[in-house]
Amino acid sequence: MFTARAAGRVALAVGQRGLAPRAGVAWGMVTISHRTMSSKSAKTPLSPPGRVARGSVLSPCDQFALKRDALVDRGGQRAVSSSAKSSSAKDVLSAGCCGGADEDDEAPPCAQPLPFDKIAIIGAGVMSNVIVSRIVNCASQKCPAISIYDVNHPQAAAMAELYDGVSAEESSADALSGASLIILAVKPQNINSVAKQILAAGPRVSQDAVLLSVLAGTRTETIRNSLGLSKIVRAMPNTPCAIGLGMTVWLSTPDVNETELNGVTTLFGYMGDAVRVMDESFIDMATALTGSGPAFVYLAMEAMVDAGVHMGFPRDTAVRLVQNTFHGTGAYAIHSPRHLVQLRNDITSPGGTTATALFTLEKGGLRATLTAAVFAAHKKAQHLGNNRKKLPDSMASGLSDDSF
User: What is the pLDDT of residue 213?
Assistant: First the structure.
């Protein structure tokens, strides 16, 4: 049977739909790639048939955990660990895919050690929680010490309580002291107050530390001028990083050395796919496309669920149908070498139901509205960073500064 830890991880990774992978599940459909914008984007190969648990697409880290935790006793060869805990929130979120593994366990592809002795995280919001969970879940046997600070100390303390080896500090100076990686995950408008705290910490902040910023619209030049640090990585992850299936677009300043670059690349690998860019304008674009993108998908899912209920499906059934439709369609699009238009044409029979529905969507302006939404998010990202590139009038029509 599955251990409590494995069962909890399945619930976390596949949305509590009861789609439990087989014991001993092998590596699956999603592979991690790190490529620059200038490189050719090779398609991820299809996995051999039968190697992926039906109904679940898990990151390599999470699949490793399932493979380890779901081992069964086969003739005394190996039994499930007797130290399995109950599936409380702490057990589910803090169950590392490498921590606690036996020496003969195979390491997952993304379980490389981080070259940082201590990580300080300023801000205890959603993205901070995502990053901490992936570090704890995927870091190999040596997991860095992690200190969290937030002006809302109870929130930081509640987050630290979820994970072993993570502490919430009473002051930013205590969190920053001795950190070789500083992760800045606060609201962009709070950058000045955070800068004052970092500067006030003085010598307790290493000038050789790498600062990883996930602030929307905040350019590396602004961070350097505000904080006085030269080793800066700016990244835009998204919330699917929480299960190792996210998308991160990032860049670094020239001062970040090769070892440190390898470290942040490994960290992004814990969270899913990552694309390194060389021009900072791409980060603002990614903020609109992949940072905000999941919200567009959720809205479309909501609408389809409501349509299913209106037609007569029970809500829980409609949710399951829509979730798996998006789940499978996304995975199929990733692994198919064919163009999206060809995939759409495959299910658009002349005069059929899909053709009729697509005509209705086009007539309602779905494509133009969605495109305008992405452009609006892009303009907002530029607005946040005072980087106001003029959009073509055809794109920016109706998007005045008063909208923000």
Answer: 94
